[in-house]
Write a structure and sequence with these properties.
The complex is a heterodimer of chains A (312) and B (297). Chain A has 312 residues and is mostly helical. Chain A has helices at 2-11, 14-20, 22-51, 68-74, 77-108, 115-127, 130-140, 147-154, 168-195, 200-208, 213-241, 245-250, 262-272, 276-308. Chain A has two domains: 2-48, no CATH class; 76-308, Orthogonal Bundle (MetI-like fold). Chain A contains 14 helices and no strands. Chain B is built from 16 helices and no strands. With 297 residues, chain B is mostly helical. Chain B has helices at residues 2-5, 23-52, 56-60, 76-84, 87-119, 124-135, 143-152, 159-165, 167-183, 187-195, 200-211, 213-229, 232-237, 246-253, 262-282, 284-296. Classes of the chains: A mainly alpha (312), B mainly alpha (297). At the A-B interface, α3, α5, α6, α7 and α9 of A face α1, α2, α5, α6 and α7 of B.
Amino acid sequence: MAVPSVAVEQRSSILSRLSESRNALGFGFMLPAAVLLLVFLTYPLGLGVWLGFTDARIGRPGIFIGIENYQYLWSDSVFWLSVFNTLLYTISASILKFMLGLWLALILNENLPFKSFFRAVVLLPWVVPTVLSAIAFWWIYDSQFSILSWALQQMGLIDHRINFLGDPTNARASVIAANVWRGIPFVAITLLAGLQTIPQSLYEAATLDGASRWQLFRHVTLPLLTPIIAITMTFSVLFTFTDFQLIYVLTRGGPVNATHLMATLSFQRGISGGQLGEGAAIAVAMIPFLLAAILFSYFGLQRRKWQQGGGD
Amino acid sequence: MAAIKRPKRPETDEGGMGYLQSLPRRVVTVYLPLLVFIIVLLFPFYWMTITAVKPNVEMTDYANFNPFWVVHPTLQHIRYLLFETSYPGWLLNTVIISTAATFLSLLAAVLAAYAIERLRFSGARQVGLAVFLAYLVPPSILFIPLSVMVFNLGLYDTPFALILTYPTFLIPFCTWLLMGYFRSIPFELEECALIDGATRLQILTKIVLPLSVPGLISAGIFAFTLSWNEFIYALTFIQSSENKTVPVGVLTELVRSDVYEWGALMAGALIGSLPVVVLYSFFVEHYVSSMTGAVKE
């Protein structure tokens, strides 16, 4: 028994003890990620909140001015319009994405020929850079040469060109349509994965009990899919709410601010206009909404664990 | 309840109850809507492609030429794009920035995921949750403070501004994805290696990483695609034309005055999309499974 004790003594230098301690090793392994995230994510988050309380401009560090930025925004009708637009955009686009995405997922879950081909093709709008597909939409929505206007005119459905991006209502509908187009694949493919975990035997049992197709959907598919719907839609809502690229490409917030989202307004005031403090305040105003979505996601995850009977 | 707990679809179930449906009914409820979905989802790409090879005369003359087709395809827009604009430079920038950001993020994410999932240091669970929350912080609320930081650090208008900031959204995502992969590797393998006297780093590089190559590929592709598609940071932190990335360059440099060069714009959008589409088509199975896996986790 003497041999092991010698070995232990030899190995008990500080360095080797450190390399065996879980905590020290864990700290070392976490270091690169932690440094990058703390410096470029946590710190800017705090800096953003601080900037919201200052009158910083580009090229001039600001001084603390309390809640003046927020007071100004409170009485700024454009800001409230952007809040309204963001909510309208998020809610309507999310509902459409959910319904169309679920429908597409149900279709893809049928026993189709070339299943994997369809699945691959459907994901394309999600893979391609948003800005680049938005440029394609810009051309599709062109006021003079819109292919949609032309096609509808040829079919005799309309008698004059649609002014897609020049009219407030049309512009809102157009950007929502483009966002839905880009968002459907994500929702459809994740829900499809959820659908495929539902055992066929449940459908067979329900059919034997005389359930109609609607009842199958309502009482078998939907309850089992709820957890994954909750998570998918939280992500979808979060990314729609903070959307910037699509609006920046298609309308830059126009016409007359009808499509300004909080993110684009923040960019316009903060970067283009140089009022960093005010831009940061608008960005900070988005945080409560995001927190609500994250809490929703958290409880969605909880529910999923409970439904699946898993402890952790 | 066991069936719900561990849902698995037996191979023999493939057909399900499909035989109960008649063909005409399937056409109306499945094939027709699918066709409409596919047409709507793919039309913008078709329109992009056809515009990119259309001569300017045909592009705006809907009376004499059917806009859905091209009579005399031309490469003039693509030639203009490649030889008379900075487009090749933007492509190169995007490749360099995306590759560097991906490698940096993967390195950090592998170590972090291994530490959280396998070293189980005290507080590992909380750190895992923090990483997940970090993924939910959107770039739209970070770009203003980050632009101040980038400027003060002297990184403004350099590729490093993007290489160092992209990991903020790549690391959380990759870590989360890799944690799922590492979880599936049996503990016993690591215990054997520990008994044989391997260090933790050796276990990671010689046992865990070779077993999680599919996970590394998915995380790498995701990270590369996300950096390729990134827009708001690239728009804010880069000013000079020669340092821009493809999405920003196409939007800010090709759109001049009131005359839109639709052909060149569409060619730029098409060529800028090709690399991610090609990458994606090679690894589509990885992509789909890891995307759904990451969401399910």
